Structures are given as structure tokens and as C-alpha cells.
Amino acid sequence: MEDMLFYDRLQFAFTITFHYIFPQLTMGLSLMIVYFKWKYLRGNVEKYNDAAKFFMKIFAINFTMGVVTGIPMEFQFGTNWAKFSELTGGIIGQTLAMEGMFSFFLESSFLALFIFGEKLMGQKLHFLTGFLVFLGSWASGWFILATNAWMQHPVGHEVLENGKFVLENFSALFTNPWLLPAFLHNQVASVATSSFVVASIGAFYILRNKNVAYGKLFLKTGVVFGLVSSLLLAFPTGDLNAKNVAKYQPAAFAAMEGIFETEEAGAEIVLIGQPNMVEKKLDNKIAVPNILSFLTHQEWDRQIPGMDQFEKDELPDNVPALYYAYHIMVGLGTIFIGIMALAVFFLWREKLYTLKPLLWTIMFLVPFPYIANLTGWYVAELGRQPYLVYGLLRTSDGISPTVSSGNTLFTLLGFVALYMLLGLLFLVLVGKTIHEGPTPQKH
Amino acid sequence: MEVFWFVIIAIVLVVFFILDGYDFGAGIIHLFLAKKEKDKEVIAKSAGLFWDSNEVWLVAAGGMLFMAFPTFYASVFSGFYLPLIIVLWLIVFRAIGLEFRSQFNYKMWKDIWDKSFGISSLLLALFFGIALGNIVRGVNLGGVENGVSVYEKHYFFLPLWDSSFSPMSQTPGVIDWFTIIIGLITVVTLAIHGANWIVLKTNSSINKELKNVVLKLNIVLSVLTLFSLIVWNIVNPKCLHNFMDKPYLLIFPLIYFSGLISLFFVKKIKKDSHAFLASTLLILGGITSSLASIFPILLPSTNTINEPLTIYNMATEEYGLSVAMNWGIIGFILLFVYLIIQKRLMGGKVDTMDYGH
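ok -> C-alpha cells follow
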């Protein structure tokens, strides 16, 4: 049984991590493509249309990856988490079915038109199809977050005697106080990823002295979108999410902030340190007193419960992983604001395009928003442990009763091999697209 | 309400097999019959432009099944664990085959992805047929061994095959000689459907030849169909009861046979779209007949200890079903609007359309 749970979790963690590399770019980039296309419609400057078409190529490759790694996610609810599906299908089946109906169809029906139909439809309709693709991909995020919000903070349901969750109030699923902050935070984070990608390609073209006119456009757009999204990530969206965790999942909050012992007169904020689970303390700790209490409750000496206040089986089962995920996310987010603020400052002083150290930094910044996005999701998912539905259904009670660990290991190995191939192909094809660069429109 | 959702999900599944069926079929034809690069390209294009929006119907069917019949979704997806995951892998190979073949312009690269597209299309068609065979045959619910259920009564786990390879075994596997026959019927049906699609949507140089192929395949299909009807009766003697009790259900087999018969005149049919319509009837009739033969059962039990899974004992609560009906109807209308817009804007032959990123 322990084995089964371990491999089911490992497979889900692996496949969802790999999958989420792609949708975060899809969602953010679709917004930026719509922006480029809109600029072109307004000003009729060709390079904006070229930019839209160039990023569409990257978008298309990325989208395919998102689709083919996404279908296994929907299947895995049933294949590996059958008990969870059986008990909660009446609730999360709603949001997941709505995702299929209201977003996947929108996205996929109009994507082919957007990619291949520019000549067929004319510019205004082409913009419209692009907008619909954007709408579809964000709607998808909305329904997934609604699903996750219910698991984090279950509302609008009733639990029957046989353990089944049945829907009692449909609209409660969408007015869940967990949903909106989580959705906004997630969407802004995906805009951050895509703007860093756009800026990085721009920096690469300028440094390579190739496609420089496009490079400047990409860099400028990328850093402006990048600064705005980085700021929004911290405040208000990140702040609201942290407050939600503190309010609804205090045990997860204590673990992610690394508070082992409750302090009477206000909690400190931990900047650095390694959780020592044997001695129940942080090794090599650097912390600032009372800040956490202030940030969370706007009161310097407000008490925040530490991990000592909770039973062991109520605490997340992997405290160090949760703590690191959270601190990596916050640390990176802070660095992003710094770099992007610097870039926008030099853009304003008209020095950005020649400032090589900053260009190199921006170029190599690309992996980090991905890491921040993924660690952000780890915070949400590890923090929810040991529950699937917070406080109500334990993770160990959700797995498929009939699928043995040997079978799961077999499919996990298959996924690892297949996804390695996909990752390799993705890099080769995106690399090729970047190498070829945007194609200027011919007249 | 259960019946309403059963019908809706059945419609979505049928539409999925009609739509994605033609690009599976195109893949099978592509694998065996496309020799010239030009033909390979247009056939891949006739599938590549549409596969993604077609496959969404499968995702939608899965989502709705999850919502309306969560227990069934949980039982079947975990019970058919291995074949389902293998189907997922094949879907990946098929999709990247279609999407990546035109990324580099040299033969070796294209050959690799053509094979990836063709072979996985063939195997997927076979697996989907085998799945249908499993649904009508039933499974060992509760994992009964020596008269005792090993699992809860609605759970099961099927191995890929059982040493006897027989549908009458106490513990049948996913693959046995009966499900293989249904699998082959599906492959042939989709190959016919794909050939009709290629004729309809492209100017490939093998269009003439394809009409002959359709005719030959149709003969094979007729033989297989008759044979399957005989063995079906042996595997599940109750398979005709529903039709005898409710004769109006006979409309579904009738649709199937009308498609089958009209395809014998494929060379005389003037409009290519009419031939495509005939193979559409084949798919529509085939799936609906299978479902009608076991209705209201969703999955029969091969043992006598545990009850079969039916739409009544698998459905979620009334409130959930009715609230979903409200958004479901809106969503459903939208789906068909998208489909019409897409088919109108991308009507006609694909040869001249832009493709390749």
C-alpha cells in the first residue's frame, strides 16, 4: 500500500511538472501575441505583425506539447486516483468537464484558424481568432484553478455516509475565496514566464547582432510586461495567497515559513536556513523579527501558530520540500522585480540596448520564471498534504485500489522516457525557430 | 437525468469517432498506400489541420463521464490501466508525427514522423476497437477468484491478456480473440472512413485507387461483421434481447447496414461527400448498436456474484446532473457552432492551404 501511494504520487508529480512547463507559456504568450497583433491593427507597422507571427510559431510547438502532455493528466485522475475520482467526481467532474467544453474547444478550434488562416480571413478576423485562443487558454486556467481551489478549501458540497462528496451549491465553486487570488497569481506568473522568454530572445538577437530591430522590439516589450507582472506577482496577488494559506491552512503556513516553535510576541520572517526535522529547528538561520506577523496580519506582535501547535498527521508530510519550494519562489520573485526594474530604468534612459551585462543577464534569466512557477505549484500541492481535499480526504485514501505499484512503476518509466524525447524535440524545434528568426513581410 | 447524460456522452463519443476517425483512417491509408512525397504531404495535412480540434471531443467525453458517472470513470480507468496508458503514449506519437513532420525539410526526418503518425494511428484504431469489444463483453467485476471478490464490487483490474486468450475465460484479459475481431472491424471501418476523407479533402494522386481500396475493404468489413455477429451471440447470448424487447432500437443496426450497403456503390456515388457520409453512418451505427445492445448497462459483469455497472448505480446525485445540464446545453450549442465555423472556413481541398509552421 505504501508503495502504491509512493509511485502514484511520483508519477503524478512528474507528469504534472513536465506538463506545466508548457501551459504557463501558452497562457502568457497568447496574451502577448494578441498585444502584438493589436499594435499592428492600430498602427499598421509591419514589424508588430511579424513579431506576432514569429511568436505564433513558438506558440504552436509549445501548444502541441501542452496538449499531448495534458491529456494524460485528465486520464490519470481515473487511472491512478480512482478512489479520489469516485468520491469527488460529483464536484470536480463539473469544473473539469466545463474546462473541456468551454476552453479546450475554443482554443483548439480557433488555433488552426489563427495559425493558417491569416490570408483566408483578413486582419480583423485574424485578430479575433487570436483573441479567442487567448480567451480559451485563460478559461482553461480558470477551471483548473477552480478545481484546485476546491481541493485546497472545499466549499459547496455535502459528504454522504458512504464518503462521497456531492454538490450542494454550484456557484460556491466559483465564489470560493481561494479561487480568485490563486487564479490571478497563476495568470500573472504565466505572463511573467512569457515576457521573460520574449525579452530573452530579444537580448539574444541584440547580443548576436542579428535581427536587431526585432530584438529591440522583443526586449522592450518583454521587460515592460516583465516588470508589471513581477510587481503584480508580489503584490497584491502573492500577498493575498499567503494570507489565504495562513487563514485556511495554518499548518501549511507554519511549514512553508519554517516556523517550528510558536513565538508569543510576533513571528519572524525566515530568509535563509535549512529545516532540521530531527531537532525541530532551522539550521544556519537568518531571520528578521516580527516581519511575518506584520505582513500577514498588519500587526507586529500578532501570534502565528508554529508547527508545534499541530498534530504530526495534520502537518505536511514533506516539510523541507515545502519550505524550500516556497523560499525559492519568493526569492526568485524578488530578484525578478530587481532585474526588471533595472531594465525598465535603462530602457527609459535609452541605454538598455547597449548595456551588455544586463543583456546577458536577461538572456540567461529564462529558466528561472519556469522554476518559480513550478515551485509555486509545489507550495500549493505540498502544503495541502497530507490531504487531497483539505481536512476531509487523505491522499492515501485516494489511490486506485486495483493498480499495483509494479504497474505504476512501469508506466512511470514509460512517461519518463517519452517525456525526455519530447523535451529534446521541444528544445531542438524552438531553438531552430529562434535561429531562423522572424520573417519580414513581403510586399 | 441519467439517460440524458448517457445520451449526451454517447453523442460526444460518436462525434469523436466520426471526426478523429477520419484522421486515424488517413493515418492508416498513409502508412500503407501513400508512396509519393506529394501524397504523403497532403494526406498528413488533411489530418494535421484538424486532429487537435477533433481530439478535444475525446477529452470532453472523458470530462463529462467524470462528472456524470464518477464511479464508472474511476472503475473503468483504473481497471483498464495499462491499455489506457498505452493509448496515451500512442496519442503522443501520433500528434508529434503530424505536427513535426514539416519542421525540417529532408526525407529522413519526414520518414520518421510519417511512420510515427501511421503506425500509431493503426494501433490506436485497433485499441479503440478492442476497448469497445471489452465493453460489450464485460469484465470480471470485483476481481472474483474462487467465488470471492478481491476488490470492492465495482472495481476490477484487467491484465493485457489471459493465458487462454478467450472471452469466455473466468478472468478475461483486455485482448482476446473476440476483442481482436472488434478491433479489426474498427481498423477496417476507420481505414474506409479515412480513404473517403482523403478523396474528399485532397487532390492526391491515389484518389482513384482509393475508391477501389474502399470497395475491397468493404467486402472484408462485411465478412468480419457477419462473423462478429455470430461470435457475439456466443460470447454474450443476451446481446439481442434489448433489440427484441425494444424493436425501435433496431434503427441503430439499420444505420450501420445502410452505410455498409451504400459503400458497395462507392464508385457510382458521384459526390465524394456522399461516400464520406456513408462511412459516417457506419461509425454512427456501429457504436450506437453496441451501446444499445447493453443499455442501460455500461459494463457487464462476467461473473454472477457482482452486478453489472449501469447508468443508474454509477451516476452522481440529481442536483449535480441537473445543474450540469444548464451549462451543458449552452456548451453543446457552442461546440457545434465552432465545428460549423471551422468546417466552413476550412472547407474545400486542403492542397492549397498553408501548412507547416
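The domain at 2-316 of chain B is CATH 1.20.1630 (Formate dehydrogenase/DMSO reductase fold).
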